[in-house]
Amino acid sequence: MLPLIGMLSCGKAKNEDKGTEDKATAATSVTIKGSDTVLPLAQKEAEEMMKTNPEVSVTIVGGGTGVGVTALLDGTTDIAMASRDLKTEEKLKFSEAKKEIEKVTVAFDALAIIVNPANKVGQLTREQLEKIYTGEIKNWKEVGGEDAKIVAYSRESSSGTYEFFKEEVMDKKNYASDILSMPATGAIVQAVSQTKGAIGYVGLAYETKEVKQLSVSYDQGKTFVAPSVASAKDKSYPISRPLFYIFDKVNAAKVKAVVDFALSPEGQKIVSEVGYVPLN
């Protein structure tokens, strides 16, 4: 399954300077690229924003946080969507390119661990998840399930979610060589829904009845918490993270309408509708 691509555009703009209309004024065109986690939120917000800002056209492409950051560095996108912070080497590259970067938190997300609905396992500890993804645990019977091989799905290495999971869940250990990498979050949902022994991880907005979400413990099994907007908001769910828009400060005026809408009450209402956690 290819990364989702959203293309949104609209036309004419009015120049109200001195009360005149400039028929030749072109629309401001903003490109947004990057995180598949942020993608459904960015698409929905752009659609709504353009209803009241017809002078702005927006093009949105997924592919992963790394793709967006590289495009921002290359100057081929105006905004990079990111589901992780910038790496040290990325910050260095921006510095070397003399690009001053602005990073804006637009929402919060809970990273949900998903399995096939037929799986009897309903909860896992962080340590068990680490051992599954490093290849130490290979059978569901080792974590209270049936005698069946674990088929673990991950995002590919360009994904911010891949990096976040490695840092926060796997304690910075390397993924096992037999972990199956998927090009988009939707592909993980589809694979887990069709594979009885599968496990994967996705952003909260990708929640669907086709898969089952697990409760997770970060205190060696004393407390298990299920992922939800409420548990992410009160920080009781341990695998939560901010979602970002990142842009070059040179383009601040160009992207202002998009960023302002994302932070506005209407934009934050869409955050909740999509399935993420608003800032307030």
UniProtKB/TrEMBL annotation:
Residues covered by the PBP domain: 22-266
Pfam families attached to this UniProt entry: PBP_like_2 (PF12849)
Entry keywords, A to Z: Phosphate transport, Signal, Transport
InterPro entries assigned to the protein according to its UniProt record, in alphabetical order: PBP_domain, Phos-bd, Phosphate_ABC_transporter
Protein function: Involved in the system for phosphate transport across the cytoplasmic membrane.
Record-linked NCBIfam families: ptsS_2
Family affiliation: Belongs to the PstS family.
Record protein name field: Phosphate-binding protein
Originating species: Flavobacterium ranwuense
